[in-house]
Design brief:
Blueprint lengths: L12 H20 L11 E9 L5 E9 L7 H11 L1 H11 L7 E6 L2 H12 L2 H22 L5
Parallel strand pairs: 2-3
Antiparallel strand pairs: 1-2
Helix pairs in contact: 1-3
Length: 152
């Protein structure tokens, strides 16, 4: 009977350690700025997160660009340039991080900060605040009713 493939929901300790090593290595490589691509020259980028596959052969690098004007397409242009230079980054990572196989790299924009800001703004909205306050009052009343069932 063939063995079922199981997908672990959480990254293992080794995955996390190697992802963090790759993140640090990439941050240093980008900071050195020895890149010949004109779209990357002088760009400041923060590597916020690296997610690596369980077999350690594929890595997704989430970046946040700094100093890019908020014109549409600028961040996407930077990601395309980083993906074009992925072979260079892969070679540099192979020299700096001890691994059997250097992973294939794919760069993406990290939009988690924008999402957090959007959620924060929603939570400060007066309508949402009123709903949250009403929900807390309802929970408090239910808790009181459960404590003292004869008081109804």
């Amino acid at each position: 009977m063939p063995r079922k493939k199981t997908v672990t929901p959480h990254a293992g300790q080794r995955q996390l350690r190697i992802a963090e090593e790759i993140r640090h290595a990439l941050a240093g490589i980008i900071a050195e700025n020895h890149l010949s691509d004109p779209d990357l020259a002088g760009q400041m980028v923060t590597v916020t997160l690296v997610k690596i596959s369980p077999d350690l052969r594929n890595a997704t690098i989430f970046i946040t660009p700094f100093g890019i004007q908020q014109e549409p397409g600028n961040a996407e242009k930077l990601v395309r340039a980083l993906n074009r230079a992925a072979g260079y980054f892969r070679g540099e990572i192979a020299r700096q991080v001890e691994m059997r196989v250097s992973p294939q790299l794919r760069f993406k924009i990290d939009d988690s900060f924008e999402e957090a800001s959007r959620i924060e703004a929603l939570l400060h909205d007066p309508v949402v605040r009123a709903d949250l306050a009403k929900a807390r009052e309802d929970e408090d009343q239910e808790a009181e009713a459960k404590k003292d069932p004869g008081a109804q």
